[in-house]
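Can anyone check this?
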Amino acid sequence: MTFYVAREGSKLWRRVCTETSVELQLLAEKWKLILAGLVFQYIHGLAARGVHYLHRPGPTLQDLGFFLLLELGQQRAYISETLFTFLFISFVLWTFHPFIFQSKKFYTVVLWCRVLAFLVASQALRIITFYSTQLPGPNYHCREGSKLARLPRPDSVLEVLLINFPRGAIYGCGDLIFSSHMIFTLVFVITYQKYGTKRCIKQIAWLIAVALSFLIIASRKHYTVDVVVAWYTVNLVIFFVDKKLPEMPDRTSGTSPPSLPLSIKEKDGKSKEENHKLINGNSVDSIDWRQRTQANGKLQEDGNTVHTDSPMNGS
């Protein structure tokens, strides 16, 4: 028993090391895209902080969702945040599963380049929208009489640039149309819908997205229009951005020698054959090579792959 556990642990460690080597090669090529996407997350937070200085509290606008949904109140406002945090962490962990599990359908670096592209495009539209018109926030800390509804003039530029994280992100006002929580939720759910393999998890993910929409309104964190606009805007953004991006390289099982999914620069005089072996985690034998074909990245449920007749361009 001890020998079996040690052997399996050794296999897992080799798998993690091999996958890390592959992903580092991809990261060496794609780091600028990853960095740009992460920097824009800060820019988005900075824009949300800036609009808080412009926010002016006022009477809560008439809203259909407020009439139909029971108000949760401040004491239960954590429910929507808890559900969102669960979805966020679950998605991040799933994107790194190729490092551990033997079934590998995508490359983590390439997937995150795609996810960040969706987020940046959606958040750019969101910044334009909430700066165009500032609405009185429906959240409890944004209403008249609250000390947090208005921000005093900053004493220095540094005070603005630091955006008072994380308190500034939690108690922001004015960045309403459209919901940032729904941007992340829909991007994550749609990404798993396309590249995930478990049908039951896909169904649960969509149920979480719908439940989160109602909880955000019931918590009075957003108006109904903020959530509704997010649903069709994010879907349209993903549809058009996905058309412009190169297709995701699909990692499938096969018997023929694999081909590199992306144009990776060879370093230290390594031949293509050595890179192929590195990507597949084999040093000598080629029997267990996993074929990487240029496919559209769409997967059937439970790990089956949809093959296409015409090759698609990798990155």
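Reply from J.R.: I decoded it. Residues 34 and 256 are 32 Å apart (CA to CA).
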